[in-house]
Amino acid sequence: MAKYLIEGHYTAEGAKAIAREGGASRRATAVKMIESLGGKLEAFYFAFGDVDVYAICELPDSIAAAAAALSINQTGVVAGKTVVLIPPEDMDKAAKKAVDYSPPGR
After folding, report:
1. For residue range 16-30, what is the model confidence (pLDDT) as tens digits?
2. Where do the DSSP E strands lie in 1-106?
């Protein structure tokens, strides 16, 4: 399974709901969503700054990740960004892979 980092940015309405319902309920909702897609939530943290919430999860494939992103973003109270996480061993394999590429102008 692939790992993904999901960043969430709450609207004012979303922040009010967090204040009302609590952060643990959001984590429970994330667990339920990820597990319904055949995945596993590994970490869930709220944060200060540009990003309000970070979640790291394993999902079976990019279709499951896209389904999660669609579900999150269509609510209108949170905007999510999904990042594919690449393990160091996969980066080692990528570095050894032959690629036929020429930059523009060469």
Report:
1. 999 999 999 999 999
2. 2-10, 40-46, 53-59, 78-85
